[in-house]
Design a protein that fits this description.
With about 140 residues, the protein is α+β, with helices and mostly antiparallel strands. The chain has one domain: Nucleoside Triphosphate Pyrophosphohydrolase (Alpha-Beta Complex), CATH 3.90.79.10. About 15% of the residues lie in helices and about 40% in strands. Strands 1, 2, 3, 4, 5, 6 and 7 form a 7-stranded mixed β-sheet that branches. The protein starts with 11 loop residues before the first strand and ends in a 6-residue tail after the last helix. About 25% of the residues are buried.
Length: about 140
């Protein structure tokens, strides 16, 4: 019996944009899996030929309608999720970059169900993605531990 050949299955590279302005951070409520309906750092997949910074700037404009200037990476992690049979359904390598807000009014679009600026006290009542929470507490120290 011939082996089943898996076609071109490789991890995808994605970016997140960490945008803090006026002591508030921009988060999006994810419309699609993985982590659907959780608040997270906005971002998305890197397209062929795009730099990490270009991808972050494009994704944020698509998801939230604002213009940013992407800077250096601050956090890199893997997201691997499996189904009940332990088959990989998501495998991303995500690079979060610090970004400067330039202009625009936040308006959710693309694959964001909602997008808004949060100050520290606003976040205590929201369902925040665990990786985003780790970033906010331990990497950029936006929240207290």
């Amino acid at each position: 019996m011939p082996k089943t050949k898996i076609k071109n299955v490789v991890p995808r590279v994605a970016v997140g944009a960490v945008i803090v302005s006026d002591n508030k951070i921009l988060l999006v409520k994810r419309k699609n899996p993985p982590h659907q309906n959780e608040w997270a750092i906005p971002g998305g997949k890197v397209k062929w030929g795009e730099s990490l910074q270009q991808a972050a700037e494009r994704e944020i404009l698509e998801e939230s309608g604002i213009h940013i200037k992407a800077q250096e990476p601050v956090y890199t992690f893997e997201l691997i999720e499996r189904d009940e049979q332990q088959r990989v359904i998501w495998h991303y390598i995500i690079v979060d970059l610090m970004c400067c807000f330039l202009s625009g009014e936040v308006q959710a679009s693309s694959d964001a169900r909602a997008a808004r600026w949060f100050d520290k006290k606003d976040l205590s009542t929201k369902t925040i993605n665990s990786t985003t929470l780790h970033l906010l507490k331990n990497i950029i120290h936006f929240l207290d531990n």
